[in-house]
Amino acid sequence: MKTPGPIATLLKAPAFSVLARVLLTLPYWWSGLSKIADLPGALGEAAHFGLKPAWLVVAATVAIQLGGSVLLIVGRGGWLATGALGVFTALATLIAHPFWTVVDPMERFHALNTFLEHIGLIGGFMVAAVVIQRDRSPQ
User: Fold this and answer.
1) Contact (Cβ atoms closer than 8 angstroms) between residue 39 and residue 58
2) In the chain, how long is the greatest CA-to-CA distance?
3) What is d(CA 72, CA 18) in angstroms, rounded to the nearest whole number?
4) Alpha carbon 115 to its chain's center
5) pLDDT, tens digit, 9 for 90 and up, residues 69-84
6) Which one, of 136, 135, 138, 92, lies nearest residue 117 by Cα?
7) 24, 74, 82, 115: which is deepest, by most CB within 10 A?
8) Measuring CA to CA, how many Å separate 130 from each of 22, 98, 124, 133, 137?
9) DSSP assignment string, 45-101
10) Whole-structure pTM over 0.70, yes or no?
Protein backbone atom coordinates (compact mmCIF):
# COMPACT_ATOMS: atom_id res chain seq x y z
CA MET A 1 0.00 0.00 0.00
CA LYS A 2 1.37 3.37 -1.00
CA THR A 3 1.66 6.03 1.69
CA PRO A 4 -0.67 8.97 0.95
CA GLY A 5 1.21 12.09 -0.19
CA PRO A 6 0.46 14.31 2.82
CA ILE A 7 1.47 11.54 5.24
CA ALA A 8 4.69 10.86 3.28
CA THR A 9 5.51 14.58 3.39
CA LEU A 10 4.90 14.68 7.15
CA LEU A 11 7.05 11.60 7.75
CA LYS A 12 9.93 13.17 5.79
CA ALA A 13 9.76 16.49 7.67
CA PRO A 14 12.74 16.98 10.02
CA ALA A 15 10.51 18.68 12.62
CA PHE A 16 8.28 15.60 12.75
CA SER A 17 11.32 13.43 13.47
CA VAL A 18 12.46 15.76 16.26
CA LEU A 19 8.95 15.80 17.76
CA ALA A 20 8.86 11.99 17.68
CA ARG A 21 12.20 11.82 19.54
CA VAL A 22 11.06 14.41 22.10
CA LEU A 23 7.91 12.37 22.77
CA LEU A 24 9.74 9.03 22.91
CA THR A 25 12.16 10.42 25.50
CA LEU A 26 9.57 12.45 27.45
CA PRO A 27 9.33 10.03 30.40
CA TYR A 28 13.13 10.06 30.73
CA TRP A 29 13.96 13.76 30.52
CA TRP A 30 10.94 14.58 32.69
CA SER A 31 12.05 12.07 35.30
CA GLY A 32 15.65 13.30 35.19
CA LEU A 33 14.58 16.92 35.67
CA SER A 34 12.17 15.88 38.44
CA LYS A 35 14.96 14.06 40.26
CA ILE A 36 17.13 17.17 40.08
CA ALA A 37 14.24 19.32 41.34
CA ASP A 38 13.55 16.92 44.24
CA LEU A 39 16.87 15.35 45.13
CA PRO A 40 15.70 14.12 48.57
CA GLY A 41 12.76 12.39 46.88
CA ALA A 42 15.07 10.82 44.28
CA LEU A 43 17.40 9.57 47.00
CA GLY A 44 14.41 8.19 48.90
CA GLU A 45 13.19 6.38 45.79
CA ALA A 46 16.58 4.72 45.30
CA ALA A 47 16.66 3.73 48.95
CA HIS A 48 13.11 2.34 48.71
CA PHE A 49 14.29 -0.12 46.05
CA GLY A 50 17.42 -1.00 48.07
CA LEU A 51 19.79 0.60 45.57
CA LYS A 52 23.07 1.62 47.21
CA PRO A 53 24.78 3.98 47.35
CA ALA A 54 21.64 5.97 46.60
CA TRP A 55 23.54 9.12 45.58
CA LEU A 56 25.50 7.19 42.94
CA VAL A 57 22.37 5.46 41.62
CA VAL A 58 20.57 8.80 41.34
CA ALA A 59 23.55 10.47 39.64
CA ALA A 60 23.87 7.63 37.11
CA THR A 61 20.11 7.56 36.54
CA VAL A 62 19.93 11.31 35.87
CA ALA A 63 22.98 11.14 33.59
CA ILE A 64 21.43 8.34 31.53
CA GLN A 65 17.95 9.85 31.47
CA LEU A 66 19.04 13.36 30.50
CA GLY A 67 22.14 12.47 28.50
CA GLY A 68 20.41 9.76 26.49
CA SER A 69 17.39 11.97 25.86
CA VAL A 70 19.46 14.94 24.68
CA LEU A 71 21.61 12.78 22.40
CA LEU A 72 18.56 11.18 20.83
CA ILE A 73 16.63 14.44 20.45
CA VAL A 74 19.51 16.26 18.76
CA GLY A 75 20.30 13.25 16.60
CA ARG A 76 23.82 12.52 17.83
CA GLY A 77 25.08 9.13 19.02
CA GLY A 78 21.75 7.51 18.27
CA TRP A 79 22.96 3.98 18.89
CA LEU A 80 24.46 5.04 22.23
CA ALA A 81 21.36 6.97 23.31
CA THR A 82 18.89 4.26 22.33
CA GLY A 83 21.08 1.54 23.81
CA ALA A 84 21.59 3.35 27.11
CA LEU A 85 17.92 4.25 27.50
CA GLY A 86 16.82 0.76 26.45
CA VAL A 87 19.12 -1.06 28.88
CA PHE A 88 18.26 1.42 31.63
CA THR A 89 14.55 0.80 30.99
CA ALA A 90 15.00 -2.98 31.11
CA LEU A 91 16.85 -2.82 34.43
CA ALA A 92 14.53 -0.26 35.98
CA THR A 93 11.47 -2.22 34.86
CA LEU A 94 12.73 -5.44 36.45
CA ILE A 95 13.52 -3.60 39.69
CA ALA A 96 10.46 -1.34 39.97
CA HIS A 97 7.68 -3.36 38.33
CA PRO A 98 7.94 -7.02 39.38
CA PHE A 99 4.35 -7.93 38.50
CA TRP A 100 5.07 -11.60 39.21
CA THR A 101 5.34 -10.82 42.95
CA VAL A 102 1.94 -9.12 43.19
CA VAL A 103 -0.70 -11.27 44.86
CA ASP A 104 -3.89 -9.24 44.34
CA PRO A 105 -5.23 -10.01 40.83
CA MET A 106 -6.30 -6.42 40.08
CA GLU A 107 -3.00 -4.97 41.27
CA ARG A 108 -1.11 -7.64 39.30
CA PHE A 109 -3.10 -6.72 36.18
CA HIS A 110 -2.07 -3.07 36.54
CA ALA A 111 1.53 -3.99 37.39
CA LEU A 112 1.72 -6.24 34.32
CA ASN A 113 0.35 -3.46 32.11
CA THR A 114 3.00 -1.05 33.44
CA PHE A 115 5.69 -3.67 32.88
CA LEU A 116 4.54 -4.26 29.30
CA GLU A 117 4.35 -0.52 28.59
CA HIS A 118 8.00 -0.26 29.57
CA ILE A 119 8.87 -3.20 27.32
CA GLY A 120 7.07 -1.28 24.55
CA LEU A 121 9.35 1.71 25.19
CA ILE A 122 12.34 -0.59 24.73
CA GLY A 123 10.82 -1.61 21.39
CA GLY A 124 10.46 2.06 20.51
CA PHE A 125 14.17 2.59 21.18
CA MET A 126 14.98 -0.42 19.00
CA VAL A 127 12.93 1.06 16.15
CA ALA A 128 14.60 4.45 16.65
CA ALA A 129 18.04 2.80 16.45
CA VAL A 130 17.06 1.03 13.21
CA VAL A 131 15.70 4.25 11.67
CA ILE A 132 18.76 6.25 12.69
CA GLN A 133 21.08 3.62 11.21
CA ARG A 134 19.11 3.49 7.96
CA ASP A 135 19.01 7.28 7.69
CA ARG A 136 22.78 7.49 8.17
CA SER A 137 23.64 4.67 5.73
CA PRO A 138 24.38 5.48 2.09
CA GLN A 139 21.51 4.54 -0.18
Assistant:
1) yes
2) 54
3) 9
4) 13
5) 999 999 899 999 999 9
6) 92
7) 82
8) 17, 29, 10, 5, 11
9) HHHHTT-SSHHHHHHHHHHHHHHHHHHHHHTSSHHHHHHHHHHHHHHHHHHH--GGG
10) yes
